[in-house]
Amino acid sequence: MLVSKDSIQIRFKRKGHMMKRVLFLCTGNSCRSQMAEGLINHDFTGQIEAFSAGTEPHGLNPRAVQVMAEIDIDISNHCSDHVGLYEDQPFDYVVTLCGDAN
Fold it and tell me: Mean pLDDT score of the chain, rounded to an integer?
């Protein structure tokens, strides 16, 4: 099910100002998860706090940086994190972006 930005904003207004935390997880944490983190943090600033990590981080893919720059989102300062960095942190949602990251 797709959720629109408007429906997420309505839900946050009803529940107050607590930000939801989401972790995007994939194997390399080099492209898809980095782009998802950038999009959410850009479009939902102050509402959702997004992070990304990988089970076997490979480093940030320069093509992901280039594609995001085309829509005026700068992810060039992102780094490829291992999921272990976040194991003691609470998240409202963990979204896996590939089958190997389950």
Answer: 86
